[in-house]
Structure formats: C-alpha cells, structure tokens
C-alpha cells in the first residue's frame, strides 16, 4: 500500500539528493503508557516522519508486579493463584500450564474426567478471549459497536465459569493433580446452550466487521510477517500460524484430551493483519467444535487426585512444561530446590512478550494508524508482558 | 418504454396549486423598518434568540439521540438514570462541563488556544442563519446562499487547525493537520455536488432551491446525476464534519483525542457542540438541496394522497427529513471502522473527485438539453 509519489524534486535533482526539498524533521511521540491503544500500560516510543512510522521501540514494564519472584515464596499449590494475573484473558490456560509442569515434574497422575474438564474450560476461555479480541480490534480500528458485541459473548461464557469456579476474570481452577472444585451440575447443559447461541454470532461477526470494505482495506497486506521472521522473533499462537507455520501445541504435542478431539488448525498464507484476523475467527469455530465433541462425554470420576493439604514433592532439577494459550505458547520453567515446598526459581516464557517485538518490525514504514491495526492483531495482553 | 418513463415522470410531479410564498425574518424586519424601528429590532432579537435556542436545543437533543441510538445499536440501553429514559442526562453533562476546570497547557499559545473553539462554533452558527426551516422560518435568505455556506463552513477548519496548533501537543498537531488536509480536500467534492443542484435550480439562494423542487426533488428529478451528487455530498460532508468513518482528526484509538486532546471544560464543550450542530447543518443542507427541503412529498396524479401530505406543516417535513439524514449519519458512525489517512485522501482525490467532475459535466449537459424528469408539471 505504499505509494511512491514522484515529486518534481525526483525529476530535477540528480540521484542521491534529498527526497524532499522541504525542511522536514523526524520526531518522537510516546504512545502510552496512558493511551487508548495501550490496553493496559504499554509504552511505545515511536519515531515518526510526518505520518510515516520510522521506528517503534516498545518500553514494557509498567505493570511489573514481580510475579515470578513472588512465586518463589509460595507453595506449589499457592503459586497457581499468581498465574491468572499474568494473561488475564487466558487465566485457566495459565493455571493449566503451571499445573501441568508441576504434575510432569512430580509425577502426579490425573484422570480422564480432570483432563476433559480442563480441555473444555480451556477451549471456552479461548473462545472468550478471541471474542473479546475481536471486539477490541473493532474499537481500535474506530468501530465502537463490535466492542460491546464482543463483551456480550464474553459475558455468557463468564457465567458458565462463575457457576463452577466462582470467579469471572482471575480464575483459579486448575491445580496440580486436578481441579479446585468439581463442575457445576448445570455445566454441560449450560455450555451446550451457550454454544448454540455462539455459533450464529460468529457469522454475525462476519456481517458486522469482516465483510466491511474499510476493515479489509485496513488489514489486508498490512504488517506482513514472513514465516521465517515470525520464527526468528519467537512468535507463537495465531500470530505464527497466520504466517503459515502450522504450529499448534494442541496438535503437535497434544495434552489434555486434544488428541482424541477432532479439529483443524487454521493457517494463514501471507502473515498480514488480515490473516491474523481470519485465523482467530476460524479458531473460534474450531474451539466450538472441540467443546461440542467433549461436552457430552465427560467421564465420571473424582475431580482431584491429590488429597487436600497433601504436600507435593517436586524433585530437584529444572522442569519445563508448555501449553497453547489463546495467544500462543506459554512455557513454564521451574527450578526446584528439592527440599523446599516452593520453586527455587520460576520463569514464564510468555507468548505476549515475544509477539510484542513483532511490532518493531511490522510497523516500520507504515502509518500511525497501522501501528494500531498491527498491535491489535497481535492481540497483546500487557500484564503478561510485564508479569 | 416511453410509457414506463411517462409513468415514472408522473411520480413525484407535484400539484403546483399550492404556492409557497417565502418570507424570511430578515425580510419582515426590513419591511417593518420604515414604519416601526422597534418592530424590526424585535424581529431581529427574535431571530437571535431563536438561533441561541436552536443551538442549545440541538446540541442537547442530538447528543442524547446519538447516545440512545448508539446504545440500541450495541444491545444496551444508554442513559437511563437522569429523568425518564435519561432525557436529562445531557443537561447534567452540560452542567458538569460548565463547572469543570478550564486548563490551558503551560506552553500553549494561550490566545489562539482560547480563540479556536469559538472559531469552530462561529462557523457553525453562521450556517444556521441561512437554512430554510420552513417558508416562514428562515432568518435570512441571502441570494448567494450556497456560496455563503461553502465559504463559512471553511472557517471551521481554522478552529481545528488553531486548536491543534496552539495546544503544544504532538497528538493535537497531528490531528489538526489531518483535519485540515481532510476538510480542505473533501470541500472540493462537496462543492462539486452542490453545483449540480445549483445548475438545475438556476439559483444560489437556498429558499430558491427549495421552491425549485416543487415538481420533484432534485435527488430524482435531475436524471441520475442528482442521485450521484446526493451520494457524493453525503460522503464528502460526513468527512467534512469529521465523523466516522472519516473521524481521523480525532482518531480516538490513534491520537487519544486528536485536535482537542488538550481542551477541557467549556472549551471542549464548544468543539463538541460544534461537531454535533455541524451534523445537523449537513443533514439540513442535504435535505434542502436534494430532498426538497420543507416541500411535502407528492406523487403526481394522486391528489388525495397529496392533500393528506399537505396537512403536515412544511416545518415538520423539514425536521422529519433532517432527522432521517441525521440518523443515517449516526448509523455510519456506529457501524463503520475508520479509514486510514492516506486511504482517505485516495478516496477523495482518486475516486470522489473524478466522479464529481464527470457528474457535473453530465449535469451541465442535462440542463443544456432540458433533460429533467417531470418537466414542469
């Protein structure tokens, strides 16, 4: 979409001369930490030449709460409570990532019921997260209405979570060796009702926003991330898949009961904003598909395999586990000290942190408004970047 | 084929039995002046008071409407607490804005910063003075009405440009520059669309344009070109008043609030009010030029129907049509995403402008060879 305007200067001046006869000057602006695009508190220092972006320098750290450090003082079960404060839109998946790492390290077994319920709530949350992303993308591009539509869908899923978990945003449900509580008696029925409600809504997204010519102009061919660069930058999740790399942990390294569920991994071809948009919309359909397959077949059994108050013993060493959250691969590295009932060191490899740096490459040479489109399709959750 | 054309031509051809004597407030004042100076003064005072009431009434009404319409588009209720269905919400908000601290940034150019909102407001109010609300309700019918509107609306750019420039804020400056570029560009297309109607009506006076539509509104009476001009005008003027999908000078998610980032309290309210009243002015002009102004809707031959239509006073016709166009503009805002700045310019210079010129040329041919639908019933 760059238009090369040949000015008089180009014709008159010999090659190598300045592109413009006007005395122009590049300038810096701060996008954030207090800015509508910041979605939290992210600061982007932007070097601009008029409307054209020359450089974007992300400055994270405004929501740093020392979550990894705090985790060193909490027991294996207690530290689950910190995980949902990182990427608050993937709270349950964050729970799961840590729980799974601890389970693998400590050799805790779970049962089918636990894994099925975990998979269902994780997919519901992915659905919820993508619905909200869609709304926020609309708002970022200047259409306010989708924002409230996204929240409407988020609300119905939140109600399912509220019944079972008690919380709506910072949910602590998945814990090492099982689930915090058993599912609500209405869980299956309510989920089915919600899925029936959501299916037509995703088509409605198409009529409201996806089919709009302005939206397509704003997204198509903007911020192209080639597959090689996406891998080099460590991008994961829908951002990586939109670039054409079919890397989805649910498929390539199945956990939970994903192996038994039938679903497709949508992959983009170009890696532009539009591909990232379409991949997420399709992922919502696939999430519905997964939940539909599982919701009627939740096996019976206890909801946890670890007795309340029992000490979890994680052997000394470095343990790593990972999970596909709504935004990409969340890796958890635990350095266990052996004796203590807490990690010696805990580190998150958060998907948002890596995806954020794609902004620096993607926005260069585009307009101010494209930073918004690019950042919005990267779907960043700032507290997860800063932790 | 000719039969169908004739039938279509009959549609909209009004019974011209009803004459529409236009008498503006200014004309009444001029008439009264030789005999009774005070009566003339009273007329002018009435006009001023009416204008003031219109500005405040419109401001509050339109803001309330916008909020309600937006809310219902978005599956929510909107203001519901202050008064029944929240009708006093805007009043409460006005008081809030009145009592807010007026902040001028420390390094801002104070004089210009203070002047800018007034400039924006002035251009808007000046336009309200020439709009024909009904045959007897128009403050002044200047014989260069269309030209006057075009000139005065250009003044609004100054408010935006000065506001952004004087704020000493980069976001404001970007917004102001975008605004200036956008408004100046789209003025060209809007004016080209206006000229089509001026050619057909053969007058620049707004009341004259309305009375020229007694046989049919220009949107369909001018063959095809009227409809195209209408669409161009609606698009270009939506851009001129900085509303979505052309709200890049404010660009909330990009520039925080664009040119009025550094404004607060009453001065912000002035910008805000000017924006809403501009929307009304644009709708009113669209109605005046293309949709017959205060003319009732007539169908040629259907005398009983026309008689019923005539029962509705012209003022109500004007208001109803304007409300419809205002609703459409609001509908745009709550449906469309925002264009990018270069896409906006491309739309104007590469798409709207060529179409506008071609349309103007076609319109000129149509006038030259008297190709009207419903020629003089």
Describe this structure in words.
The complex is a heterodimer of chains A (387) and B (377). In chain A, the strands form three sheets. A three-stranded antiparallel beta sheet of chain A has the order 1-2-3. Chain A has a three-stranded antiparallel beta sheet with strand order 6-7-8. In chain A, 45% of the residues lie in helices and 13% in strands. In chain A, helix 4 (91-106) packs antiparallel against helix 5 and helix 5 (112-140) packs antiparallel against helix 12. In chain A, a hairpin with a 6-residue loop joins strand 7 and strand 8. Chain A is α+β, with helices and mostly antiparallel strands and 387 residues long. With 377 residues, chain B is mainly α. Chain B is 67% helix and 0% strand. Chain B has 15 helices and no strands. Chain B has helices at residues 2-10, 25-32, 37-73, 89-99, 110-128, 145-166, 170-201, 206-211, 218-221, 225-240, 252-255, 265-290, 303-311, 314-333, 341-368. The longest helix of chain B has 37 residues, at 37-73. Chain B starts with a helix and ends in a 9-residue tail after the last helix. Residues 1-17 of chain B have low confidence and may be disordered. The interface between A and B is medium-sized, with 32 and 30 residues.
């Amino acid at each position: 979409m760059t238009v090369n305007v040949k000015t008089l200067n180009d014709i008159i001046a010999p090659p190598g001369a300045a592109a413009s006869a006007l005395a122009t000057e590049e300038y810096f602006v701060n996008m954030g930490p207090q800015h509508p695009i910041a979605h939290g508190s992210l600061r982007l220092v932007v070097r601009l030449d008029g409307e054209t972006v020359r450089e974007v320098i992300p400055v994270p750290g405004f929501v740093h709460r020392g979550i990894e450090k705090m985790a060193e003082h909490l027991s294996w079960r207690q530290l689950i409570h910190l995980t949902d404060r990182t990427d608050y839109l993937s709270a349950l998946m964050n729970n799961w990532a840590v729980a799974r790492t601890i389970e693998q390290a400590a050799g805790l077994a779970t049962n089918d019921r636990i894994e099925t319920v975990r998979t269902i709530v994780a997919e519901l949350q992915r659905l919820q997260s993508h619905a909200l992303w869609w709304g926020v993308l609309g708002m970022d591009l200047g259409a306010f209405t989708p924002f409230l539509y996204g929240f409407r869908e988020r609300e119905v899923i939140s109600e399912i979570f509220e019944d079972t978990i008690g919380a709506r945003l910072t949910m602590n449900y998945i814990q090492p060796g099982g689930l915090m509580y058993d599912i609500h008696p209405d869980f299956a029925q309510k989920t089915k009702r919600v899925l029936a409600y959501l299916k037509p809504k995703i088509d409605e997204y198409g009529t409201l926003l996806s089919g709009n010519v302005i939206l397509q102009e704003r997204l198509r061919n903007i911020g192209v991330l080639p597959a090689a660069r996406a891998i080099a930058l460590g991008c994961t999740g829908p951002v990586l898949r939109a670039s054409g790399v079919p890397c989805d942990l649910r498929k390539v390294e199945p956990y939970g009961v994903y192996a038994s569920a039938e679903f497709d991994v949508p992959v983009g071809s170009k890696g532009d904003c539009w591909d990232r948009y379409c991949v997420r919309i399709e992922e919502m359909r696939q999430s519905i598909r997964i939940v539909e397959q599982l919701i009627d077949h939740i096996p019976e059994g206890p909801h946890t395999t670890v007795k309340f108050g029992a000490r979890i013993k994680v052997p000394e060493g470095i343990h790593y586990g990972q999970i596909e959250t709504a935004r990409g691969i969340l890796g958890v590295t635990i350095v266990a000290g052996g004796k203590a009932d807490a990690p010696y060191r805990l580190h998150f490899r958060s998907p948002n942190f890596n995806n954020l740096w794609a902004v620096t490459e993607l926005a260069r040479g585009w307009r101010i408004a494209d930073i918004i489109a690019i950042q919005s399709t990267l779907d960043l959750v700032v507290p997860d970047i800063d932790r | 084929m000719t039969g169908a054309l004739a039938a279509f031509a009959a549609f909209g051809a009004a019974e011209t039995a009803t004459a529409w004597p236009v008498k503006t407030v200014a004309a009444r004042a001029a008439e009264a002046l030789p005999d009774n100076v005070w009566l003339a003064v009273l007329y002018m005072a009435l006009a001023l008071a009416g204008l003031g009431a219109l500005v405040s009434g419109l401001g509050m009404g339109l803001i309330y409407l916008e909020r309600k319409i937006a809310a219902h588009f978005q599956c929510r209720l909107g203001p519901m607490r202050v008064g029944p269905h929240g009708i006093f919400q805007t009043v409460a908000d006005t008081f809030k804005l009145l009592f807010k601290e007026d902040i001028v940034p420390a390094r801002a150019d104070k004089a210009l910063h203070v002047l800018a909102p007034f400039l924006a407001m002035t251009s808007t109010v000046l336009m309200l003075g020439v709009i024909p609300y009904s045959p007897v309700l128009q403050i002044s019918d200047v014989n260069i009405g269309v030209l006057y509107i075009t000139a005065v609306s250009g003044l609004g750019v100054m408010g935006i440009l000065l506001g952004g420039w004087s704020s000493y804020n980069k976001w404001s400056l970007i917004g102001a520059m975008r605004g200036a570029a956008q408004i100046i560009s789209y003025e060209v297309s809007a004016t080209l669309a206006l000229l089509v109607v001026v050619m057909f009506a053969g007058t620049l006076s707004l009341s004259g344009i309305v009375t020229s539509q007694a046989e049919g509104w220009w949107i369909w009476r001018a063959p095809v070109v009227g409809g195209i001009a209408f669409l161009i005008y609606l698009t270009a003027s939506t851009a001129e008043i900085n509303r979505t999908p052309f709200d890049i000078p404010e660009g909330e998610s990009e520039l925080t609030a664009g040119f009025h980032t550094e404004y607060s309290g009453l001065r912000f309210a002035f910008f805000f009010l000017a924006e809403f009243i501009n929307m009304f002015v644009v709708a009113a002009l669209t109605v005046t030029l293309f949709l017959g102004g205060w003319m009732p809707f007539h169908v040629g031959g259907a005398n009983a129907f026309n008689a019923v239509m005539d029962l509705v006073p012209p003022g109500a016709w004007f208001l109803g049509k304007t409300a419809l166009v205002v609703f459409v503009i609001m509908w745009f805002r709550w449906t469309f995403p925002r264009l990018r700045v270069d896409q906006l310019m491309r739309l104007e210079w590469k798409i709207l402008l060529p179409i506008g010129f071609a349309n103007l040329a076609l319109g000129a041919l149509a006038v030259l060879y008297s190709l009207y639908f419903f020629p003089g019933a």
